[in-house]
């Protein structure tokens, strides 16, 4: 059992892959839905306005945008940078072009023929032998 301290409140909890305890996770999910609803009602709001009105750090909003849980409208003028080339994007980690390049690289890696290994002389020491009846 892996027990850790919550990054937000400091309480001990059974680690489940997230750095927050279940109570803080619930609070964060509630905040997420508040932010999502606020953005839906105010599509032209900028990120600092959203953060200030909902009492959420800008870094948390950026994290939700990178996770593709939040998407701002083009009218809001909010964008984050592609992690590969730095172009402005509205959601996710990579722009469409960089996603395409990565997909092509992965596809070409899987289509290459595996390197054939040369057959080495097999020794008779490792063979299974049967006794005759």
Please outline what is shown here:
The chain has 133 residues and is mainly alpha-helical. It contains four helices and four strands; from the N terminus they run E-E-H-H-H-E-E-H.
Description:
The protein is mostly helical. The protein has one domain. Helices cover 40% and strands 8% of the residues. The chain is built from 4 helices and 4 strands. The strands form 2 sheets. Strands 1-2 form a two-stranded antiparallel ribbon. Strands 3-4 form a two-stranded antiparallel sheet. Strand 1 and strand 2 form a beta hairpin. The longest helix is centred in the N-terminal third of the chain and has 20 residues, at 22-41. The radius of gyration is 26 Å and the shape is flat. The termini are far apart. The model has no long low-confidence stretch (mean pLDDT 84).
Produce the secondary structure layout.
Elements (H helix, E strand, L loop, with lengths): L2 E3 L6 E3 L7 H20 L5 H8 L3 H9 L13 E2 L6 E2 L6 H16 L22
Antiparallel strand pairs: 1-2, 3-4
Radius of gyration: 26 Å
Number of domains: 1
Low-confidence stretches: none
Strand order of the largest sheet: 1-2
Kindly report the oligomeric state of this protein. single chain
Shape, per Cα inertia axes? flat
| Order of secondary-structure elements | EEHHHEEH
Notable characteristics:
133 residues, mainly alpha, two-stranded antiparallel ribbon, 4 helices, 4 strands
């Amino acid at each position: 059992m892996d027990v850790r301290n919550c990054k937000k409140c400091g309480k001990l909890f059974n680690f489940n892959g997230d750095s927050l305890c279940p109570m803080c996770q619930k609070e964060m999910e509630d905040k997420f839905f508040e932010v999502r609803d606020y953005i839906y009602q105010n599509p032209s709001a900028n990120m600092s306005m959203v953060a200030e009105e909902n009492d959420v750090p800008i870094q948390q909003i950026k994290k939700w945008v990178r996770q593709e849980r939040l998407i701002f409208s083009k009218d809001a003028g909010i964008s984050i940078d592609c992690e590969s080339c730095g172009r402005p994007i509205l959601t996710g980690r990579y722009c469409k072009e960089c996603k395409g390049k990565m997909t092509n690289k992965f596809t070409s890696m899987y289509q290459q023929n595996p390197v054939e290994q040369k057959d080495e002389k097999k020794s008779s020491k490792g063979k299974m032998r049967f006794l005759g009846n």
